[in-house]
Amino acid sequence: MLEKIDHLGIAVHSIAEARLFYEQTLGLTCEHEEEVASQQVRTAFFTVGETHIELLEPTSEDCAVAKFLANRGEGIHHVAYACDDIKSHLAQARASGCQLIHETPIIGAGGKQVAFLHPKSSHGVLTELCSGETP
Ligand code: CO
């Protein structure tokens, strides 16, 4: 089952600039920065209660986050749900007619297993399923 909202992914042009809002305005602490080669992004994580904020800065001009920024500008990029069994959730999503971006989980930030559901099937919200510990 889905356990909680694990994190919100927020697309930004520059983590160095965006983190000032989270640190100075909201008073959060950046706990982890990581480049995720599989997604061509640099990430920075902040924690609020049981949920994280994941800032996403593209590291190439033709990756998905760069295209998102070009089309829609900075803002919420995806909602990630922590789940106990990502493969069974993917199977359930497929069986329900949902378009999948990943047929099988890939390795995301922090070595977690992640998979994305297409926003065309989720009313405009790119949806991530993840399992494993957030860094
Ligand atoms: Co994410």
Structure description:
This protein has about 140 residues and is an alpha+beta fold. It has a single domain, classed as 2,3-Dihydroxybiphenyl 1,2-Dioxygenase, domain 1 (Roll). The chain contains 3 helices and 8 strands. An 8-stranded mixed β-sheet has the order 2-3-4-1-5-8-7-6. Strand 3 (about 40-50) and strand 4 (about 50-60) form a beta hairpin. The longest helix has 11 residues, at about 15-25. It is globular. The mean pLDDT is about 95. The chain binds cobalt (II) ion. Cobalt (II) ion binds next to strand 1 and strand 5.
Secondary structure: elements and pairs:
Elements: E1 2-11, H1 15-25, E2 30-36, E3 41-48, E4 51-58, H2 64-72, E5 75-83, H3 86-95, E6 106-107, E7 113-117, E8 127-131
Parallel strand pairs: 1-4, 5-8
Antiparallel strand pairs: 1-5, 2-3, 3-4, 6-7, 7-8
The protein binds cobalt (II) ion (CO).
List keywords for this structure.
3 helices, alpha+beta, 135 residues, 2,3-Dihydroxybiphenyl 1,2-Dioxygenase, domain 1, binds cobalt (II) ion, 8 strands
